[in-house]
From TrEMBL:
Coiled-coil parts of chain: none
Taxonomic classification: Eukaryota, Metazoa, Chordata, Craniata, Vertebrata
Residues of the LRRCT domain: 226-278
TM region positions: 293-313
Highest taxon of source: Eukaryota
UniProt name for this protein: Trophoblast glycoprotein-like
Keyword NADP listed: no
Signal peptide start-end: 1-32
Alphabetically ordered keywords of this record: Leucine-rich repeat, Membrane, Repeat, Signal, Transmembrane, Transmembrane helix
GO CC annotation, single: plasma membrane
Family matches, as InterPro entries: Cys-rich_flank_reg_C (IPR000483), Leu-rich_rpt (IPR001611), Leu-rich_rpt_typical-subtyp (IPR003591), LRR_dom_sf (IPR032675), Wnt_signaling_inhibitor (IPR052286)
Pfam families for the chain: LRR_8
GO BP annotations listed: negative regulation of canonical Wnt signaling pathway
Amino acid sequence: MARRQARAAVGGRWLPWLGLALLPLAVPPAAAPGGCPSACYCVATPELVTCRYERLEEPPRELPAAVHNLSIAGSNLSILPRAAFAARPLRDLRLLRLRHDNIHTIEDMALQGLPALRTLDLSHNPLLSVAAGAFAGVPLLRTLQLNQALLAAPLEEQLALAMQNLTLRRLELAGNALQALPASLLPPGLEELDLRNNSLQRLAAAELRSLEAPELRGLRLNLGANPLSCDCALRPFLAWLRSAGSRVLDARSLRCAGPPARRGAVLLRLRPEELVCAASEGGEPGQLETASYVFFGIVLALIGIVFLMVLYLNRRGIKRWLHNLREACRDQMEGYHYRYEQDADPRCASAVGTPGL
């Protein structure tokens, strides 16, 4: 009994100290310089900061100076003003994710103060305006993700100006309902372009030629989940795909979305002669030429039939006109014959030669 009481006394002596030791784990630390912001949480180390669905209206100001990856999702940033992340220098920030943040405007020098930034993700934002100097101040930026960010407005010209001084290696434009290859958004040296889940029916011959430019010969594409139309207009793309298949990373998974007879067919398994155009779609060049000749022949035949009908209906008048023409020709010939006989008669000739007799 005495031994149990001694043990209880020893345990009671250490209990307050144990409570003090566990207190920091029970109470979240307040934001402090170099610590994790109160509206965010840090994973493992302060180098990875995530702020999700906190409805922030501006980027957190109290960020760890050593942060490498910063993710803000589900907020209402709306506008990225000049030097939006420069409240505290973030010289080591390499990845910045701003997904689902309702960003519609990016002003000049918005990323000032992020000299080490290499990856910028602006996906799932309704972008309406991108200033020409929006990406100035991030000379090391190599990856730009704009998936489902170009649906609210046509921004190809604005983005082309904003990207002209970047040295991008990867550009993601998935889910933007693009109907053609955005040639103006392909900077020299680009290595990977993600065009999945757009509205591409094919890559036209001119677009394929642009991909063969010397500055884009190392470019690889992702084209999955596009509604490819497997008709005669797809033949140049199919030929290019077979000759440069390694440049399309998901070439083996490309399937036809139309016409109905080819829906679901694997593109690389089709032969060029199987890609035909229906008459409602304009037809192939050879078929068009044949149809033109047939139509021209039908028109000529109709004209000939009409002409024959006119002749038939006026056969009596034409017969009378031919009879009159023949009689006129006969009278004319008889006149010529009479004059010839008169000229050939020697009596008439001698009479003309001796007028005094």
